[in-house]
Write a structure and sequence with these properties.
Strand content: under 5%
Number of helices: 13
Structural class: mainly alpha
Order of helices and strands: HHHHHHHHHHHHH
Shape: globular
Distance between the termini: 35 Å
Helix content: over 70%
Largest sheet: none
Number of strands: 0
Length: about 300
């Protein structure tokens, strides 16, 4: 096979993986919604059960990779791997679950695009990243887009803690992702991506298992058909949306570039919005306008410096 043919094949595969990852990560918000309750509104899983089960199942799937790469981990890495596990995996799993008790998956997917805004801000404030004009303007535009999305949901309701809290939880989750991305970029550059992923999930997964045992989750699942269905959705979310997706993302980087791979960030909100519409969630012009403005801000921020996306 000639180099030209090989490059063409890699390009086609790269686009296929990019689209596939966008669908998988965009669908994760819908899966969270379905794991929490059925179409009639009956509860399948509580948010804490969903978050803990998701972390444990994902860590179990990734455990073989941990054993494969554990010898490359040094003492200086441990603290930062814990931070990556808690901020990049553990806390967001719970925060998104609680948020989507009262928030549409489409809006959640839109707000996830705030991650690069937080990431570039943390890089500048803590890690001495040189912020440029496009970063500042992009952050301002991104904040405007996020405001339009939130405003679209709250314009006809009285501002109460119950209405505002879901948005705060999603933004906290994106802040956690941004912290994790910076820690991985600046503190763990000498570890392979799969080493970081499998180890960080280990730190989030097995405490989650202990929590599930303490609250009697196994008995609850056995005795409740709805809970069993919820676990099924969580298993798909954990295996496909986390373990398999991480492997595909790593492969995408190898055959293309981080710049190309990072563009998945901009497709996820669109996929989440479309899937949310298909399952009956309402969309307003404000939400669509907010998503376009938010993505525009993120694109401007990443004009010269891209931030790797997360699921």
């Amino acid at each position: 096979m000639t180099k030209e043919t090989n490059d063409k094949t890699n390009l086609q595969l790269a686009w296929f993986l990019l689209i596939l990852l966008s669908i998988v990560w965009g669908a994760s918000y819908v899966l969270i919604k379905m794991a929490l309750h059925d179409n009639s509104g009956s509860v399948r899983l509580k948010p804490d059960e969903l978050g803990a089960a998701r972390m444990f199942i994902a860590s179990l799937v990734l455990l073989p990779f941990f054993f494969k790469f554990v010898k490359t981990i040094k003492r200086k890495h441990v603290l930062f791997l814990i931070i990556a596990g808690v901020c990049g995996n553990g806390l967001p799993a719970f925060l998104f679950a609680y948020a989507q008790m009262n928030l549409d998956s489409a809006i959640t997917g839109m707000l996830n695009s705030v991650v690069p805004i937080f990431a570039i801000t943390i890089s500048a404030l803590i890690f001495s990243f040189r912020i440029k004009w496009n970063h500042l303007v992009g952050i301002a535009i991104g904040i405007l887009g996020a405001f339009l999305i939130v405003f679209s949901k709250l314009q006809n309701v009285t501002l109460t803690q119950d209405e505002v809290l879901p948005f705060v939880l999603v933004l906290l989750a994106t802040l956690c992702y941004a912290i994790s991305l910076n820690v991985i970029k600046y503190k763990l550059p000498d570890l392979k991506p799969m080493t970081i992923t499998s180890t960080s999930f280990l730190f989030a997964g097995f405490p989650s298992l202990i929590y599930l045992i303490i609250i009697g989750f196994p008995k609850h699942v056995v005795s409740n058909q709805g809970a069993l269905e919820g676990v099924g959705y969580v298993a798909i979310l954990a295996v496909v949306g986390t373990a398999v997706a991480v492997y595909l993302f790593n492969h995408l980087i190898q055959i293309s570039s981080p710049v190309f791979a990072s563009s998945v960030t901009y497709f996820i909100p669109a996929v989440a919005t479309l899937l949310g519409f298909l399952i009956g969630e309402e969309l307003s012009y404000f939400q669509l306008a907010g998503m376009i403005v938010l993505i525009g801000g993120v694109l401007l921020i990443n004009r010269k410096a891209r931030v790797k996306p997360v699921a």
